[in-house]
Amino acid sequence: MVQVLKQCGDELTRENIMKQAANLKNFELGLLLPGIKINTSATDYFPIEQMQMSRFNGEHGELFGSPISAEMATQ
User: Do β-strands 54-56 and 68-69 pair in parallel, antiparallel, or remain unpaired?
Assistant: First the structure.
């Protein structure tokens, strides 16, 4: 939400907030895994479409490989 408000600047209308929320490009949020980017558009409101594989090593999950796009995973 902070990024959307920054993109709005001084024009805090409902229309502009919705426009900016649908215009996030390669935004990396600190709460997500490194390399996972948020992207939205006027026709795609799903912000997270990447994932990273992990495996259980006997004690905890362990990430491996680099983040992959969900689009690639369905092909």
Answer: unpaired
Residue 40 to residue 23: CA distance in whole angstroms: 5
Q: Indicate the pTM of the whole model.
A: 0.67
Q: Where are the domains of the chain?
A: 2-73
Q: CA-CA distances (angstroms) from residue 30 to 4, 19, 33, 44?
A: 15, 23, 8, 22
Q: What are phi and psi of 68, to 5 degrees?
A: -120, 150
DSSP state letter for 7: H
Along the 75 residues of the chain, how does pLDDT read in single tens digits? 899 999 999 999 999 999 999 999 999 988 888 889 999 999 988 888 899 999 999 999 999 999 888 765 444
Q: Which residues contact 36 (CB under 8 A, 6 or more apart)?
A: 28, 29, 48, 50, 51, 52, 67
